[in-house]
Amino acid sequence: MSLTINLIGGALIALIIWWFWLSRSGQQKAAAATEEATIVVDAGVYTPSVVHARAGKPLTLHFDRRDPSPCAEQVVFHGLEVSEFLETGKTTTVRLNDLPPGEYRFTCQMQMYQGRLLVD
Ligand SMILES: [Cu+2]
């Protein structure tokens, strides 16, 4: 009986280590240049809030809006002349093509939500 409990305990510890390791490697992936990303819009923050993209490549962003407050309803890409309305409870896809190198902010219309798009 105690052997079974020890095995379960060991398995749980292994699971916790694996989970932390996985979540950490996930964060590293978010910092790497990407051509597609999903951004959760909730509780006043974009997650992830920083997107790294390659210049001249298309970038597809899926905004998963979970915050019903009007504050979250629009995303504006400053310096790119792009903005989009986001529907609550749905995912809205924004496609950006031929991005010039630089750093661009993306925010809600009131600039409460803050994100950065890094292009190089
Ligand atoms: Cu806002």
UniProtKB/TrEMBL annotation:
Membrane spanning residue stretches? 6-22
Question: Where does the EfeO-type cupredoxin-like domain lie?
Answer: 13-119
Key word Membrane present in the record? yes
Q: Which domain of life is it from?
A: Bacteria
InterPro entries per the UniProt record, alphabetical: Cupredoxin, EfeO_Cupredoxin
Q: Which UniProt keywords apply?
A: Membrane, Transmembrane, Transmembrane helix
SUPFAM superfamilies per the record?
A: Cupredoxins
Presence of keyword Magnesium? no
> What protein name applies here?
Cupredoxin domain-containing protein
Which organism is this entry from?
Seongchinamella unica
Q: What is the lineage of its organism?
A: Bacteria, Pseudomonadati, Pseudomonadota, Gammaproteobacteria, Cellvibrionales
